[in-house]
Amino acid sequence: MNPPHTVPTSDRWRSIALLLLIAVLFGANHVAARLTFDHGTGVTFAVAVRSAMTALVLMLLLTLSRPAGRLTAPTFRRALLVGLLVSFQSFCLYSAVARIPVALALLVFNTFPMVLGLLSWATGAERPHPRAMIAMPVALVGLAIALDVFGWAPAAARASQGQIGIGVAFAIGASLSMGMVLLLTTKWLSAVDGRMRTLILMSVVALVTFCAGMIGGGFAPPADGTGWLGLALLTAFYGIAITVLFTVLPKMGAVNNAAILNFEPVAALILGWLILGQSIAASQLFGGVIVIAAIIVLTTGKR
After folding, report:
1. Helix or strand or coil: residue 153?
2. Cα torsion for 170, 18, 200, 171, to the nearest 10°?
3. What is the H or E stretch that residue 168 is in?
4. 3-state secondary structure of 161
5. Which residues contact 153 (CB under 8 A, 6 or more apart)?
6. Where do the domains of the chain lie?
7. I need a surface site. Which of 18, 248, 263, 265 has the fewest CB within 10 A?
């Protein structure tokens, strides 16, 4: 019998492989999102379709499995509030992806573990480990390099990024809201079945984005077949990744492996280069490596 809190080597490698696959699927989702955005799809339309289809699949899974337990009214209201935050996070992240290279948007977004640590500390839930006090500023330096704050990237690379200012602002908004989502989910919804929790959140996101799109405009479907293909791919990739993540990860018994999900920006960088022809300067790639390394150090330490 294995000692308590010990994961067999074979199980650990299976966990690593599965999480790498999830990270690749999330990265592919954002590359597909950029593809459909480039072919006329509105951000709110894409988020609404993606969330609605994911919710429908989860509803089918729950109908077939019939999970035990029922949601109390207070828990349901809290889930609705978290769903509103997820709506904001989804809109911000896809808005960033629509404006700047996918990998760069995800690099900024993947600072959310640091946001979560600071929010947890501020609310008295948990004080960051001393290594966090080193990892966080290092990650910020790496982020500054990735965003070319120092002007090291070639002029051509900077010009290709387009609306980098507003794109980075959206990505930061996504990071802040994601940190809040994880904090409130841990505090309020940890006892809820992962599929049920995801179903509620995705349903709220679909409803909010649909209403926002119809009221505020920008609820545009794809303009051609390539746009519809991108929309179908982003829906499939996201639906599979988020469902597997919330359903399987809690059963792995290797919580620290979650840091492997920070491979997502790297996967998006490779896929963006292969499919979209996007590129990032070597100095910015170096900054991205610093960010990912700092986050891994931050999230894999002993708690």
Report:
1. coil
2. 0
3. helix 164-188
4. coil
5. 281, 283, 284
6. 10-299
7. 248
